[in-house]
Amino acid sequence: MKNMTLVNSVFDALVVINKLFEKNNFVVVSGGSGLYIKAICEGFDEMPEMDESLRTQIANEYREKGLPWLQRELEKLDPDYFGLVDSKNPQRMMRALEILRSSGRSIAESRNKKKYNHDFSIIKIGLEMDRDKLYERLDLRFDKMINEGLFEEAQKFFDKRRLNALQTVGYKEIFGFLEGKYSREEAIRLAKRNTRRYAKRQMTWFRGDDKVKWFNHDDESGIVEYIAGITE
């Protein structure tokens, strides 16, 4: 696509979007997690500041009692949020536990969303693909990343593997291999499996947005016709 721009934060994205609208009638935003897209379209959730001692306490409890304890604790305190969160992601669950213990309220109750008043209208398009075909393409994409040096890249970040930014699918499984927990082949198998699971969760998230209009991934004419009908 012509004039594509890569951005890292929601703030950066909004700056770029508004700048593009100075010279264009339409702007296409593609990709991003469900929360990222939601933040761009609707605004941020302002969470309460955390007590550092509480954060340390929860981290120590997690190290002593493990992931099953963290999952049980979060499910007990906020079953609704537990049903949505990645239950294999300890950083996200510890953050939720901090909020729950400090505020005494559920994650939904703690959110104080600051709505954006955009100067543009938003049309949401979702692309569907046969699940087997999608999973095949995800596997091929991961193989391509390996061939382009993903293992070597993870090795460079090994000493920083505890950082939240590196707790992502792909890196986590390779770090496990580098720590000697399992073989290279098992790391690849786990990464591909977890990528498919992540894709399934993302699809579930977007399915919950009734403003998304769904099309087959190759139905270009249908998408163009739909947008034209709204914007005429």
Radius of gyration from the CA trace?
20 Å
CATH C-level class of the domain at 128-209:
Mainly Alpha
Give average pLDDT, whole number. 86
> Residue share in helices?
55-70%
Which sequence of strands runs across the widest sheet? 1-2
- Please name the CATH topology of the domain at 128-209: Helix Hairpins
* Oligomeric state of shown chains: single chain
SS content category: mainly alpha
Distance separating the two termini = 23 Å
Distinct helical segment count: 12
The CATH architecture of the domain at 128-209 would be Orthogonal Bundle
Shape: globular
Annotation keywords:
232 residues, mainly alpha, Histone, subunit A, disordered N terminus
In brief:
By secondary structure, the chain is mainly alpha-helical.
Any overview of this molecule?
The chain is mainly alpha-helical and 232 residues long. Among the domains are: 52-111, Histone, subunit A (Orthogonal Bundle), CATH 1.10.20.140; 128-209, Helix Hairpins, CATH 1.10.287. 58% of the residues lie in helices and 7% in strands. It contains twelve helices and four strands, in the order H-H-E-H-H-H-H-H-E-E-H-H-H-H-E-H. It has helices spanning 10-20, 34-42, 52-65, 67-77, 79-82, 90-103, 107-110, 131-147, 150-156, 171-178, 184-207, 220-231, and strands at 43-45, 113-115, 124-128, 212-216. The strands form two sheets. It has a two-stranded antiparallel sheet with strand order 1-2. A two-stranded parallel sheet has the order 3-4. Helix 1 (10-20) packs across helix 2 (34-42). The longest helix has 24 residues, at 184-207. The radius of gyration is 20 Å and the shape is globular.
